[in-house]
Amino acid sequence: MKKMIIAVFAVTVFAGSAFAADVLEFKKGVTFKHKQHADAVKDCKKCHDKADGGKIAGFGKDFAHKTCKECHNEMKKGPTNCKGCHTK
Fold first, then answer.
1. C-alpha angle 77/68/48, rounded to 5°?
2. What are the pLDDT digits (tens) for 46-82?
3. Superfamily for 21-85?
4. How far, in Å, CA of 86 to CA of 42, rounded?
């Protein structure tokens, strides 16, 4: 019984990352490839409040324009102009 509880707990803890959407679609034609960004940045706290990810507090147009553009400029990779993100 104890092994069953541990197994259920483990599955519950890791299920979030297993089922998280890899490609997110936002307004104005913005497509965000989460896995690609996670692999490149390697630090969830660069965007998320917690090291294990989750929702981003205050996420919206202002957050994205500031945080995403800043990161793209820092890494010298990724779009920094309107049409680079807003493809539709």
1. 120
2. 999 999 889 998 999 999 999 999 999 999 999 999 9
3. Cytochrome C3 (3.90.10.10)
4. 25
Estimate to the nearest angstrom the gap between the alpha carbon of 38 and the chain centroid.
7
Q: Which two structure tokens, joined as six digits, stand for 10?
A: 């483990």
**What is the distance between the alpha carbons of residues 59 and 80, in angstroms, rounded to a whole number?**
18
Tell me the H-state helices in the chain. 2-19, 34-41, 61-63, 69-75, 82-85
Q: Is the pLDDT of residue 9 over 70?
A: no
Give the integer Cα–Cα distance in Å for 27 and 39. Answer: 24
CA angle 24, 28, 33 (to 5 degrees): 25
Distance CA 60, CA 64 (A): 6
3: phi then psi, degrees, rounded to nearest 5: -65, -35
Identify whether the C-beta of residue 86 lies closer than 8 Å to the C-beta of residue 65. Answer: no
